[in-house]
Design goal:
Two copies of one chain form a homodimer. In chain A, helix 3 (about 75-95) packs parallel to helix 6 and helix 8 packs parallel to helix 11. The N and C termini of chain A lie far apart (about 50 Å). In chain A, strands 2-6-7-8-14-10-11 form a seven-stranded antiparallel beta sheet. A six-stranded mixed beta sheet of chain A has the order 1-4-5-9-13-12. Chain A has about 650 residues and is α+β, with helices and mostly antiparallel strands. Chains A and B meet through helix 12, strand 15, strand 16 and strand 21 of A and helix 12, strand 15, strand 16 and strand 21 of B. Strand 21 (about 605) of chain A pairs antiparallel with strand 15 (about 525-530) of chain B, so a sheet runs across the interface.
């Protein structure tokens, strides 16, 4: 019988089990050397440590209450949580006793802050204790808990220290008593999803199914009637209609999750929810959840996703608008949303490899999430337009600092997105110089060394290190774009058509120490055109090479980037390695440029612009704004 | 000696002296039959009459104070003023005793409201009397006065009734005592310009130079140091830095007006200021003002103007941003701003005809201002995007109802923009079926009948009716787009190259009763391309015919208008008269359409869209959204 995806349960490899070099190694070094500490410094500057330190007076409302009824100060726990998570991953790569000591002190503060019953939330213990559990819709209470749980799991895995893990288990145990349909329990869920995926992590690291059950409860309850948010508002004396976001679609609570067919609302909320749903689908083999997720996946990727894997075009709801509405210059495309898409995609692989998910995971990772971090790890993008007139630059910090730690924790944990293991199978979802120590449920211990200059070059080699021969399948993603990929095992070519299913080459055999697999992915320059329904990309073309979206910047090409016209048939491109830009591969192409000189006095005229031959340099989009500031453009004019 | 423009003073013809038929006659009928009354009804519904009626209690703050420190309720006087002005013009065309009686009652209320000293402002007499003259920067106090003055002049000209005129003369006389550099006087000016041009109107109708002098005072003071707004704020106990608009550029008060070189800030404010400046330049033969205005004119029209004559792309400041930044779908391009551009352009003609101004006046009139009114005169556009995904529709009313009466008063007074007279010269700036009764300073009385189906057809004939022969020049604009225009006098062709200067054919002769001038302006379909520096129009083309910008609408062409591609060489176009759309001339062209069907599952792919031959119907932009709602597009893809 042929195996189907849904027969298998894949779980990500723990972060410390993968050591990165090459492309990702550099990015991880930037986080270890700069970002991890920067995050903590900024949290301290914002007053977050004072807020959790019961030895100090309550901070009160430091950041003003906003029209939506809350303040970003309410999510300080999440900022600290994601920062600790980042530190945890960074400590594994690069021991830093001083940074570890700072994290330990924060964890000690949380220990002291925690209530006897297990409750833990800086805002609702220190600023508004009377408001605990009164407004799950708006106040991010369980969202904060979720991020502290993720931090706890990461810190435990990285350092072996259990203190924060124990704290969060106590809190989760308390939540189990608080939420449910029993007498006096709250039949609700959080307006900003996050706790769902966090509880799955907690369950996996502790082996405690009760945490999975609570996660499933939150997912199952979402959007059911009578509507929890409506009932909660009434109980709290608030008018349920008085909701600044106007619709429960904002938090994907407009329908039971299994009935949802369209990706709507706040983009990060949506991604976190679907991530939790996918985890629960994997853990419970829940086909009804998987079916809903597959529909939502198609809805997002075929109608609502930028070519960068950026999602959520609108600033006003930080989320989705109409199908095919993807403005480039005003794209919100929050870094966190693409990080969330990576989360979701990786979890869609829980029931087996499928490049439908892994290709998008890679696309969103390199082009939607990674731009959020500068190459020195010190500055950040919150929103990620695909066109800039020159005014969009990285921030040192943000009034809502959710993105910096989000991209930092993703970068430092990227190994766990590259490899996943099932009972007798290793799946390689992402490529890049790395060494993974993998334990299969069938007892095999494999150290898999991946040698590659990916994504700059397409040659990838795996060498297996095994104490004794072992039978398992090695599944390697063959990206859809990789026309003409070549695979060999120990020098013997493999006919891909015989081994590829769902876009993965599955090599099932008894592996021996020193076995070598070579995969060559052709990195041809690919023009990409958008469905003509995307009005903003009409008449335009984007360039990709491998998984990377390219763009033009003024620093290489001068101003007026919209005057560049790419020929319909791409001429041969030259590549150059840019030493000052993380050794990125730049692409130089012959183009035409519309002349902006001598246009005449009027703004409009009867004759189109004259054109002259020119060359244009394209650089990877994720690296833009790392050199001189100026215009940037992804979708350039295409000749017709 | 050759005359130069600056030698002459042209003044617009009074509204009642021009009777419109044809194109403008229909629009005026719509205002007379619907808009004029609608405006008053809406003002009443908003509570404006209660606000000025001292027999009723003070209305208090009906509309909440906004972050900028005021409320639109503060400008209710201006809404009433523009409505009365519209009614005045409409009464001339179509007597309506009931409507006139309503206007009279409002004027009676204002008479009772006016303070003994002459002051008149509903807000500062009835709601915040203690705040009179304390915040000219933000509170629109003189702006309101200006609109009431314009109403007074119009009502007097249309009805012969002096009551409102006398009221406003008393107020203006009082202002003369209030403003100045004398002891206890206010050395200031209004944050929202309007009073300047209004005082010129008042001076011209009364013959009182003192009102011109006050207007000139406001203009001369603007932007000088020590800065009035700064000093005023300090006197008022406000922090001058605490200005929501951040920069005095917002109200063009950042520099003395003669030093200003760049059009900045709030678009309507800018247009009203420049209008007043141009009037003062004409009245005082002030070359320094004219020089500044010429620079500003080029700055606006060559770098900051939509092809529609829409200006001010940004909603956030209702105004200007960067050069060449002209987004189409988010264009603010407020109706009032284009009305203001018509005002300014017409006043730039005060020192002599020049098509540089009149061509733009016509362009902004037909394509920037007129879209603000539906063909039935009942609904209104506030902002005027050049592209709509189908969600932009006319309003019944607006929370800030400045645009409806502004376009209505322009439409009903259009005759005064068509004709202007100097001592011995008649200038015809705009074409259209009409009869003008013109009095020249040299004593000639001319009734000029213009017969034309312009702008739908280019044939225009003038017949002069004179009691006795008279010497004067007749200057007819030859639009820059009218390649191959043909002119004849009494059947004799005139070589245009011998009579055209500044774009006007100047026919100087002794005219006799029955003399006939024929002008034929070729209405060729013209592709228009934007300077490539306008990134939003890159690779796109717009169609114009005569003065009209065309667009495509979904109701004619189906959805996905961005999939339409116009060939580089325009094929022969067919024209159709649309009975259901004010007898507009529609244009049908052979185009190609990108196929949106069978695109495939992914949003992006390697192959561009296939194309199929198709036809597209273009309709005049000013008439869009008068039929079925749906997508609209001005700048369509252009083949390359």
């Amino acid at each position: 019988m042929t195996r189907t995806r849904k027969d298998r349960q894949f779980r990500p490899v723990a972060v410390p089990d993968v050591e990165l070099g090459g492309f990702w190694g550099k990015w991880q070094d930037a986080v270890c050397q700069s970002t991890a500490e920067t995050l903590l410094d900024r949290c301290v500057e914002a007053g977050m440590l004072k807020a959790i330190d019961i030895a100090q007076p309550s901070p009160g409302i430091v950041i003003p209450i906003q029209p939506w009824g809350g303040t970003t100060q309410m999510f300080w726990d999440s900022d600290l949580g994601k920062s600790i998570e980042t530190i945890a991953y960074s400590l594994y790569r690069r021991p830093n006793p001083e940074l570890e000591a700072r994290a330990d002190r924060i964890i000690d503060m949380y220990e002291k802050l925690q209530d006897k019953d297990g409750y833990l939330n800086a805002w609702f213990q220190r600023v508004q204790p009377e408001r605990r559990w009164t407004n799950l819709r708006d106040h991010h209470e369980l969202y904060c808990a979720g991020h502290l749980i993720e931090a706890a799991v990461a810190y435990y895995q990285a350092t072996g220290k259990r203190k924060l893990l124990d704290i969060m288990c106590r809190y989760a145990d308390y939540m189990i008593t608080v939420f449910g349909h029993g007498e006096g329990q709250i039949p609700g869920y959080c307006g900003h999803e996050e706790i769902e995926l966090a509880l799955v992590k907690l369950a996996r690291v502790t082996g405690e199914k009760k945490y999975l059950d609570l996660s499933k409860f939150f997912i199952d309850e979402r959007g059911t009637e009578p509507h929890f948010f409506t009932e909660e508002a009434k109980r709290d004396g608030r008018d349920p209609e008085n909701f600044i976001q106007k619709t429960y679609e904002y938090g994907q609570a407009h329908q039971p999750v299994r009935e949802q067919r369209q990706v709507v609302g706040h983009a990060v909320r949506a991604m976190y929810l679907y991530s939790g749903m996918a985890d629960i689908a994997t853990e419970y083999n829940d086909d009804s959840l998987t079916a809903a997720l597959e529909t939502l996946w198609d809805d997002l990727t075929a109608k609502q996703m930028y070519i960068t894997g950026g999602i959520g075009p609108s600033a006003s709801n930080e989320g989705f608008t109409d199908y095919y509405d993807l403005p480039n210059d005003t794209a919100y495309a929050e870094t966190c949303a693409s990080v969330g898409l990576v989360f979701w995609a990786s979890r869609m692989l829980g029931r087996g490899p499928d490049r439908r998910y892994a290709d998008i995971m890679e696309q969103a990772l390199y082009n939607g999430a990674l731009p959020g971090l500068s190459i020195d790890g010190r500055t950040f993008f919150y929103d990620n337009p695909l066109e800039s007139s020159g005014k969009h630059h990285r921030w040192k910090w943000h009034h809502c600092p959710c993105c910096p730690p989000n991209i930092a924790r993703l970068v430092t944990s990227i190994g766990s997105y590259m490899y996943a293991v099932a009972e007798d199978e290793i799946a390689v979802h992402l490529y890049g110089e790395s060494t993974a120590r993998l334990k299969l449920a069938n007892g095999a211990n494999v150290e898999l060394r991946q040698t590659s200059n990916y994504p700059w070059e397409g040659a990838i080699a795996f060498t297996a290190k095994l104490e004794r021969p072992a039978k398992f399948a090695l599944s390697l993603r063959i990206p859809e774009w990789a026309d003409g990929a070549i695979l060999s095992v120990n020098g013997t070519m493999i006919d891909l058509s015989t081994v590829v299913s769902d876009g993965y080459a599955r090599i099932e055999r008894e592996w021996a120490d020193g076995d070598r697999v070579e995969l060559d992915l052709p990195l041809e320059l690919r023009p990409q055109y958008a469905n003509p329904k995307v009005r903003q990309d009409a008449g335009r073309v984007a360039l990709m090479r491998g998984p990377l979206v390219y763009c033009v910047e003024a620093t290489d090409n001068g101003e007026d980037l919209n005057a560049i016209v790419l020929p319909r048939e791409l001429p041969a491109a030259e590549t150059t390695v840019l030493k000052d830009l993380n050794d990125a591969v730049a692409i130089d192409v012959a183009v035409e440029r519309e002349e902006t000189e001598n246009w005449g006095k009027a703004l409009y005229r009867k004759e189109p612009a004259k054109r002259r031959p020119a060359r244009a340099r394209f650089v990877p989009y994720h690296l833009w704004d790392n050199r001189a500031p100026g215009e940037m453009l992804v979708w350039v004019q295409s000749d017709k």
